[in-house]
Amino acid sequence: MKLDNKNKLLIAGCLVLLFATYKLALSKTMAIQEEYGNLKSKRIQAQDIPEQLALLAQKEQYYDSIMQRMDIGDTSVQNNLLRTINEQAKVRNVKVIDFNPPHTHSFDDHKLLTHSIVLNGSYTDILQVAYMLEHKGSFGDIVHMDFEKKKDYRKRKSFLEATIFVQHIE
Fold it and tell me: pTM, whole model, 2 decimals?
């Protein structure tokens, strides 16, 4: 054999040995090293779980305090709105004349709910009730207020009646 053929066989043998070495030893070592890295990252994440639980507990307390401050219960928005109006009506000497079911309008993926409320009382008391509606709870925005002075001919007295539209998006 010539020197040329021997060199070619030597190079081919080295390539076969490199391939065999990779297949038998290095690929398994690299797979185990990758698995070790994954397990190490999972261990680090598992160490953070108590801190994350404590953080979630703090967030829960914070959101509960916000809900208590806004005086929102577990019932529907309509029930909370009616309860708040009744509480304010007792305090402010205002009468709730009418509380209609909400008018709904659907667009895209949202629902627009408009509650119509009719109150009877003095001007300042009605305004204070309206202020509390808009700022105390998350009932939505007051989009319209209509004041109308009416007269009761039987009693010969006039009174103020306000129609309030509260609108929110679900």
Answer: 0.55
